[in-house]
């Protein structure tokens, strides 16, 4: 009975109800679209940065990350590889041998990161083969190297020239050799572009006197957001001789930046929700003042204040849910459309995006929580605002109310 009365009452003043519902529809639509584009852009940014080099999750010998030397490298056994490959979320285990060294030409020297890779497997995570700007990509049996463009330019080297690498190998042995440059790599990240050298992992193991040893296993997974869950699951089945690290630990500065961006979005959404709250409160305030006489009569003829309060709360919830539901229904096709056909960025902003290796596109996320979250928040706002008419009814003097 109360539900029926509440539904009928909100349509006694159609104009007021429709105006309030329309304001909620607009706010929910805007909040949903903003949340969708923010989550979509940040996810793509996160995916792009993670795929530059580190991957979403890595496995090292325990203690390697705190002391990144070849002495903390590890021998790979079939048990570990099988445990990783057997997990349904992992579709590739990529071996790397990494170490810092001095790169040199006849006239210049510069510190660099030397990375031994499996040429066939590495593109699964980093798409390294697509970053070759000049020359050719590596094969497993090559005795040549790939050099980042920025480093090659500083050293004055090009494809076919010889790069000298000088460093310290496993257990302190001398690591020095010279290699022809097979190709140049273009990295969007300025830091990577100035210091990366790649060679086949067997050649790297030979250079550093570390046969069959690796410093990291990079795990290829489909969704970087699953890294935390996968890290927890693997830590329960993998020996404690190994450390499992997700991208948040590998790149804490990226994680902090994403948190800051999401924090800014929360502030913007808070402003929208405050506007929604004022819209709902305005309706509740007018409704409460206009119906003082009605409330006084109902209390005077014996209607319990509690039931009357419930009825008013239901009216408020109906209006809020109506606006939130319509706003969500309108936002779904809008978000899905832009998810399928993202907005391309043009002009100077496009150049900035491309310089930093990000696709100049605004992606939209279609995660379910983006849609139902708005309805839930509006419902909570409506319940909180319902305290006002509730207090007015509890304090109501029927005689005074009927005189207004």
UniProtKB/TrEMBL annotation:
Q: Give the residue spans that cross the bilayer.
A: 266-289, 310-340, 370-391
The protein's predominant localisation is membrane
Acyltransferase recorded as keyword? no
Q: How does it sit in the membrane?
A: Multi-pass membrane protein
What residue range is the signal peptide? none
Q: Kindly give the Pfam families that the UniProt entry links to this protein.
A: FtsX (PF02687), MacB_PCD (PF12704)
User: What range(s) does the ABC3 transporter permease C-terminal domain occupy?
Assistant: 267-397
Question: Which InterPro entries does the protein's record reference?
Answer: ABC3_permease_C (IPR003838), Lipoprotein-release_system (IPR051447), MacB_PCD (IPR025857)
| Localisation per UniProt entry | Cell membrane
Occurrences of domain MacB-like periplasmic core (ranges): 17-236
Alphabetically list the UniProt keywords: Cell membrane, Membrane, Transmembrane, Transmembrane helix
The family database entries (PANTHER family) matched by this protein are listed as: LIPOPROTEIN-RELEASING SYSTEM TRANSMEMBRANE PROTEIN LOLE (PTHR30489:SF0)
Q: Which family does it belong to?
A: Belongs to the ABC-4 integral membrane protein family. LolC/E subfamily.
Query: This chain belongs to which protein, by name?
Result: FtsX-like permease family protein
